[in-house]
Protein: ATP-dependent 6-phosphofructokinase
Organism: Heterocephalus glaber
Amino acid sequence: MTNEEHHAAKTLGIGKAIAVLTSGGDAQGMNAAVRAVVRVGIFTGARVFFVHEGYQGLVDGGDHIREATWESVSMMLQLGGTVIGSARCKDFREREGRLRAAHNLVKLGITNLCVIGGDGSLTGADTFRSEWSDLLSDLQKAGKITAEEAKKSSFLNIVGLVGSIDNDFCGTDMTIGTDSALHRIIEIVDAITTTAQRYLALVTSLSCGADWVFIPECPPDDDWEEHLCRRLSETRTRGSRLNIIIVAEGAVDKNGKPVTSEDIRNLVVKRLGYDTRVTVLGHVQRGGTPSAFDRILGSRMGVEAVMALLEGTPDTPACVVSLSGNQAVRLPLMECVQVTKDVTKAMDDKRFDEAMKLRGRSFMNNWEVYKLLAHVRPPVSKTGAFTVAVMNVGAPAAGMNAAVRSTVRIGLIQGNRVLVVHDGFEGLAKGQIEEAGWSYVGGWTGQGGSKLGTKRTLPKKSLEQISANITKFNIQGLVIIGGFEAYTGGLELMEGRKQFDELCIPFVVIPATVSNNVPGSDFSIGADTALNTICTTCDRIKQSAAGTKRRVFIIETMGGYCGYLATMAGLAAGADAAYIFEEPFTIRDLQANVEHLVQKMKTTVKRGLVLRNEKCNENYTTDFIFNLYSEEGKGIFDSRKNVLGHMQQGGSPTPFDRNFATKMGAKAMNWMSGKIKESYRNGRIFANTPDSGCVLGMRKRALVFQPVTELQEQTDFEHRIPKEQWWLKLRPILKILAKYEIDLDTSDHAHLEHISGKRSGEATV
């Protein structure tokens, strides 16, 4: 990238003005987006304005449209809802209202509008844009604006960010607020161990292992009452004492007749006599602090929105900035709105299959996995079945149990015999192996840690005993759920095939570690939970300093040599700096950070937060940095330090980790069945090709299987990290949001895509 391009990002906004508004229902994470729009806008040289109370503020003008400063968005990240207010607005629906709004914008020289809201809010924005030139000529005719003003504001750029807890906007995998709403629902479902909003209902059912879920897009079959009662009594006979049924708002049967939680309660009480309670969640889902995922999503989308606005021309269509898998994309606003409307119409016309397809791959995938895990009965006989073993390796990570549950149950549904191995490779060598039935893994989804037991021991020294047990227990495939040791263990098994034929069986590694350092995957199970733990702690620590001024906190995070947790937690908690191994730093950098904090203490924000990854530098330890800050900040600020330690590995898994683990387990087991069949020759399994030992990982937009041997070149074994890591590209955002004068590489920004082509091939997470 050239210097000119670097320079361009910093001057892109000079002479331009951006207004940001939130509209429609509150969604957690909106504040993170507002904060990013304001700070990145100011960074590029643009003036940024808050529009208070949504479109109503745009129409009323005056004090409702105020210029934002850097400090005016501090301490916003951890707040739920929207700080600048959001109101549903009748006036803006009328042309007269839009005329007033246009007048207010022209007078302030604002020609860029960033709208954060649901599909209604975004449709309104597009209407406004399409009428813009007519509105200006009317204002000019009426003498309300001059020809000069009209010329200066000749076109209006609009970018939308989808902020809606329902995740019902087509074209985006996750809308701002959805993840936080899932956090609230799961907290409650875990506590009572029923739910509104269909996407929420679906992911919740995967995340808590519900017995049945009713959603509008896929009404139950005509005899659903029989089926439901049969299913509930079956789970009771298998030893389950508790059933969870989740009902989405708007659920109907095949004839369009509403299905309510009361109907279901009456049915269960009447037919089965079970004690049944109904809980309606309502507005709880909108409350509380935003999750780490929503803060990072909001921040990333905010940055992308500013770039899309400032790069916009009269010919670029209004776009929506959204997430596809792990990738920021820009999509034409009206295409997304149209598909979202098509879903509603398809449902009204009872074309339910079409509604499911229009919802997109991610939704379909959730539904398929849910149906398998909840509705398919495991076959009674295991004739002609294969035997697959499941194990955990490495340090415990939240979500491991959800992955084991899903792997075991999908295996049983396929008619296979499933074995579980205790204590990793050590247990495999010692024969700590037992068969798992359906109820063995009951209730595992929401439990933290590793129920099977997990160790860091590698297999190399005990390949002989492992081979003997593979033969003894007739193991024909191995699912290894764990961290970097699971990956290196896989490599050792591959190497061992030269010596032991018994090791020639297919195996797959599912990445599960808080460090997120397994090559071949952008995410690993457990990292999201750890991130939320760090975030919550940082919020509390920042809050503790709200009364005391001029205090800087230095917090040490886990992750080995991998700086993922420190960087992402820094983005989510609004840190001033995050020290990591991947980005070497010197004493001069530390000095610059101290100086930066000294300047910050002169503003209204008299608090600092600094994160340090545990192995970022062997000499600049947490104590060293604390001592340096204490000495240099004397008389200006106090310093405090905090080492978070093992609490980052514990806790109940977040909805993201539960859902991700469940889908990874299902995907791994489906692959395994195919691979075993492929390798079956003359009555035995013989798998000796590189693609029979894989890591299943999320790469940008898809879940992919990659041979462990191919990933070797991409690995820095000394530091146990992949050589290339996608999240390093987010580091500049962290620095810009902390007010550092740095260069922003704009070469990697999203380009406009079309929604129609997006439906078939992208991520399933």
